[in-house]
Design brief:
Elements (H helix, E strand, L loop, with lengths): L17 E5 L5 E4 L1 H6 L4 E4 L4 H19 L5 H10 L4 H13 L54 E2 H14 L5 E2 L11 E2 L12 E5 L3 H7 L52 H5 L4 E7 L3 E9 L17 E3 L1 H7 L5 E3 L13 H4 L12 E2 L2 H8 L2 H4 L3 E12 L4 E13 H5 L3 H32 L4 H23 L7 H25 L3 H5 L1 E6 L6 E6 L1 H15 L6
Antiparallel strand pairs: 1-2, 1-3, 4-9, 5-6, 7-13, 8-9, 10-11, 10-12, 13-14, 15-16
Helix pairs in contact: 2-4, 2-5, 13-14, 13-15, 13-17, 14-15, 15-17
Length: 561
């Protein structure tokens, strides 16, 4: 493995590698970590080579914020930091002092402690894999559907390699890895699967503001966000990876989670630990200027069961199956994103916490980030538009490949996310339920048209379902961006009118496409399985439309009904 020489250096604190979009003119620049944090109020957001890279890099910067200011702070301290920002000399001095203290740990090519890597890592045959192993948008075994190929996979700049390095530590698929010499887990020269990298378990959420500093602060959660019922949760050992001694090829005691300890919280430590979790042991091959290969071995195993008080950026669901498997009374699992389901359809699960008795165990939990923002009463203090950005990965083939990357955004007012008013949660749930129920009836209408024409129902139903959600996607996003806590009653009334109008229009469109056979219709007989009685009913386009409108009026009654 070519690793350059002892004088080779690419320190991420000083060298340009983070891709950012500037607020003023939308220019895309590459900046160092220190430049990015210093100019965070002038930066709109991070960008990158793909969307999950953004999630991984925001978490990296968030870990530096935790390192600079800690995790034990109250609401007043948060407000002071938010309002002053890095332009305040005292705030910047704390950040700069921290960055300088751990400066040596951020050198990508350091011979003894390279950033996010293990010096001297090697296999028995000193193999090095191609860069396709580190570029997570390159399909395994098939480069047809990727922007990369040929010579572009032979080398990459140090800046791009650093971005992918952080992303691989967050989202690397499972599967057999190279076997590192000295790792006792290796058998026959192979590192057998320990699961996907940490962020791959999550249905990730980032709250985005109108600049990078606001985004970092909106996701900067105090340990005081943990409810009083969980006083045993301990973040005192929470540290980013660079605050700990350099790793070796072996699993790290106290971090690597044995299979029999799945669901045991002590391995999670806290957000800064999880944001910089070393799921793999990696070493880049380089010539001092560019990267030309990579070695990826197993790192520290960690499963997500019961990490809800340590990982702030995902929502959670109670898992009966995991409770039985692990023989633990309560087990929460991350609620991963469904790539086929738009973010707004899950909005009721993240806008307002469940109302439940103190003695009961809730079936779902919001991300700690949202609970902390609610605790800060941020929506009451700031009339601020924000963006919820959902990130995630769907793995396939025993989680050894990436099938789909989730990247969805939703603009809304901060008060909707942080309101303690149950009417807000009820209204959001009602708005989404109207869509789901209305589209079910529209699919039923399409099925009835097919029945009237003597054709199978399945395809017309599926087509109507897909068409309707695509139409409602734009309408709902436009509506939710205008909703506020103060105007919630008027907002939901406005949505009811919008939804009913759109459902009727979709019904009319399907009616106009009805075949002559559907317009004429036919008699359809059915047998009651209990009584054995056979009845006949006439189906045609006009009757189907009457039935549909009646059901929609039940879902969305006319005013005064």
């Amino acid at each position: 493995m070519s690793i350059g020489n002892d004088n080779t250096s690419f320190n991420l604190m000083d060298r340009q590698w983070l891709q950012v979009i500037m607020k003023q003119d939308g220019a895309v620049l590459e900046l160092s970590i220190k430049e990015t944090l210093r100019r965070a109020k002038d930066i709109e957001c991070l960008t990158g080579d793909n969307t999950i890279q953004q999630f991984a890099l925001v978490r990296l910067l968030e870990a530096i914020v935790y390192g600079s200011f800690g995790n034990d702070f109250n609401e007043d301290a948060w407000w002071g930091l938010y309002e002053r920002g890095p332009e305040d000399e005292d705030v910047w001095h704390r950040i700069e002092q921290y960055c300088d203290a751990y400066h040596d740990r951020f050198d990508l090519f350091d011979a003894k402690q390279p950033f996010y890597q293990v010096a001297g890592l090697h296999t028995a045959k000193h193999e090095v894999s191609g860069l396709e192993r580190i570029i997570l948008d390159v399909p395994a075994g098939d480069r047809l559907f990727t922007i990369r190929g040929g010579e572009s996979l032979q080398t990459m700049s140090a800046a791009e390699a650093a971005r992918w390095l952080v992303t691989v530590q967050a989202f690397d698929p499972s599967g057999i890895k190279s076997g590192a010499v000295g790792d006792p887990r290796v058998k026959g020269g192979k590192g057998y699967p320990i699961g996907v990298a940490w962020s791959g378990h999550l249905g990730g959420y980032i709250c985005e503001g109108n600049d990078l500093w606001t985004t970092l602060m909106l996701n900067y959660v105090s340990r005081h966000a943990i409810s009083a019922g969980h006083m045993d949760v301990d973040w005192t050992t929470d540290t980013p990876i660079w605050e700990r001694p350099p790793l070796t090829q072996c699993a790290q005691n106290g971090y690597d989670q044995p299979a029999e300890s799945t669901g045991v919280p002590r391995y999670f430590h806290g957000p800064a630990t999880l944001y910089t979790w070393q799921s793999r042991r990696i070493l880049l091959s380089h010539d001092g200027e560019t990267v030309n290969g990579v070695l990826i071995c197993n790192g520290d195993r960690l499963k997500p069961q019961n990490a809800e008080n340590y990982e702030p950026m995902t929502s959670w669901r109670r898992s009966d199956a995991q409770e039985k498997k692990l023989k633990i009374p309560v087990v929460y699992m991350p609620r991963k994103h469904d790539p086929s389901r738009a973010l707004w359809r899950n909005l009721p699960t993240i806008t307002v916490a469940d109302a439940y008795d103190v003695a009961s165990v809730p079936e779902r939990l919001r991300p700690l980030t949202f609970n902390w923002l609610q605790q800060l009463q941020l929506g009451t203090s700031l009339d601020m538009p924000i963006r919820i950005h959902a990130y995630g990965v769907e793995y396939g083939n025993q989680e050894a490949v990436i099938d789909t990357i989730v990247d969805d955004k939703l603009d809304l007012n901060l008060s909707v996310l942080t309101s303690k008013n149950p009417q807000v949660g009820d209204a959001i749930a009602k708005a989404v339920n109207i869509v789901d129920a209305g589209i079910r009836e529209l699919a039923g209408f399409a099925g009835n048209l097919a029945k009237a024409a003597g054709r199978p129902e399945e395809t017309p139903r599926a087509h109507a379902h897909e068409l309707a959600y695509s139409q409602f996607d734009y309408a709902f996003r436009q509506w939710i961006a205008t909703v506020t806590e103060e105007t919630i009653d008027e907002d939901i009334a406005r949505w009811e009118k919008t939804a009913k109008s759109l459902l009727y229009r979709l019904c009319d469109d399907l009616s106009q496409q009805a075949s002559p056979q559907a317009i004429v219709g036919r008699e359809i007989s059915s047998r009651n399985p209990k009584t054995g009685e056979t009845t006949s009913r006439h189906y045609d386009a006009a009757v189907a439309q009457i039935w549909f409108r009646a059901k929609i009026n039940t879902i969305i009654p006319e005013e005064g009904e």
